Amino acid sequence: MEHTNLIHHEDGHTHMTGEIHLPAPTAWPFVLSLGIALMIAGLVTHWAVSLLGLLLTLRAAWGWFFQVLPHEHHINVPVQAELIEISSTRTTQERLPVSERHRKMIPLETFSITAGIKGGLIGGFAMTVPAGIFSVVKFHSFWYAVNLLAAGGFVSWANQSDAFLGQFHLEGLLAATAIHGLASVLIGLLYGAMLPMFPRKPILTCGFIAPFLWTGILYTALGVISPILDQRIDWLWFIVSQVAFGLVCGYVVNRQVKVRTSQFLALPFSIRAGLHGAHPPEPKDTDQ
Predict the structure, then answer these.
(1) Is CB count within 10 Å lower at the N or C end of the chain?
(2) Residue 96 in 3-state DSSP?
């Protein structure tokens, strides 16, 4: 049985007083273990050691038996404990302020480089699905979209016909794979670095905001990067492909395990553990 009283003090702390009914302490289990150990030790030393162990074992068994039978012995233990409310400096947004004088927030966790590469490659593969559908529906050849992308690396392909671009070309496949793979990996790494900054709506950021942003940038610069692609690209299907890439890449990256940032790992242990009262050190003023 337990009898406790709660006392509230003016300082806000709560103390608990009273008594707790606990089993009475006993040393007989220790004596029993010592007796058994001596009996075993006597097997390799002397019979007198085993005899002493036997006596201790019998005495401990007798004492322990009457310690719990016919009724278990109990004692009342006075208790006076203080209930302390534990608080933490961690925030729900998992952000770390540089200092009180700066508004910059550093994420506590981010994605590894491997997560960005994996997301970029899988997203790049997903992007080929709507691009291939467009190529087959409009030009009756899957290789049109492949060769159109590769044409940016071949000056001699600038004036080629649609029939030529609809044929299979090994050099076009290799060039398109290299261009598309490199771009997908770079954007996947960018997504891995960007997602921890927008943790609330990653699908909206990766699937729609970022693709429309990339499309706007390419729309103004594609005439310089690849004139043949700028002349023949279908921007509606291009946006659909970008959205497919963003949704798949963002989903894959967001499913990966996060790692602690280097800025967070460089902080003292008390801050990383979220101990109460711990604050980041103020930066030194170098203007003086």
Answers:
(1) C
(2) strand
